[in-house]
Amino acid sequence: MKTIQRNTQETIIQANLEIYGSGEGKIDTQIGFFNHMLEALKKHSLMDLSITCQGDRHVDDHHSVEDCGIVLGKLLREEIYPVRAIERFGNAAVVMDEACVECDMDICNRAFLVFDMDVYGAFKGKVGDFDVELIEEFFRALTINAGLCVHIYLKRGKNLHHIIEASFKAFGIALRRALIKNNQIIIPSTKGSL
């Protein structure tokens, strides 16, 4: 299990992660909807994740959400690299009522995010008091710091809660599938390293 403490003038975050866990851990970012999304990610990835964040929420939630992505990405990088004996690629499409979101992932140590969620002009506004635009900031911070190539895209949907929750679940399942151990694949690259 890896642990990080990250203190800035905007946030104080402590987190620990075990990628081959059972989906356990405590989430407290002081942002109810974001806690719910991280719980979904943790549950469906089967990672043991605990994270606490004290942020400058009197400004807004941006720093807390983005910095949690940074911390989770750094923990993933420490746990994943160097890549050995895993599937490397993972994908998942998750449906929640009318919504369907797909996530495709490559654990390649080359950070890239395609976040194509505004296909129907639906990905704007708020869920409760949570700014929907922060979801992309979270996934960008996570993928850059973890060294992942991730494509998240909306296949269909209208309800913002369903769309966002499906994206977190799809990411978690795609990550779990990419991390499946496979001893036939010592280094999953024709280059010989990742």
Concise description?
This protein is of the alpha+beta class and 194 residues long. The protein has helices spanning 32-45, 62-80, 134-146, 160-178, and strands at residues 2-7, 11-18, 27-28, 48-55, 89-96, 99-107, 112-116, 126-127, 130-131, 148-156. The protein is globular, with a radius of gyration of 16 Å.
Briefly, what CATH class? Answer: Alpha Beta
CATH superfamily: Imidazole glycerol phosphate dehydratase, domain 1
Number of helices: 4
* Rg over C-alpha atoms, rounded to the nearest angstrom: 16 Å
Intertermini distance: 22 Å
Q: Using the coordinates shown, work out and report the CATH topology.
A: Ribosomal Protein S5, domain 2
Low-confidence stretches: none
Write the layout of secondary structure elements.
Layout: E1 2-7, E2 11-18, E3 27-28, H1 32-45, E4 48-55, H2 62-80, E5 89-96, E6 99-107, E7 112-116, E8 126-127, E9 130-131, H3 134-146, E10 148-156, H4 160-178
Parallel strand pairs: 3-4, 7-10
Antiparallel strand pairs: 1-2, 2-4, 5-6, 6-10, 8-9
Helix pairs in contact: 1-4, 2-3
Notes on the structure:
- It is a single chain.
- This protein is of the alpha+beta class and 194 residues long.
- It has a single domain (2-178), classed as Imidazole glycerol phosphate dehydratase, domain 1 (Ribosomal Protein S5, domain 2), CATH 3.30.230.
- The chain is built from 4 helices and 10 strands.
- The protein has a 4-stranded mixed sheet, covered by helices on one side.
- Helix 1 (32-45) packs parallel to helix 4.
- The longest helix has 19 residues, at 62-80.
- The chain starts with a strand and ends in a 16-residue tail after the last helix.
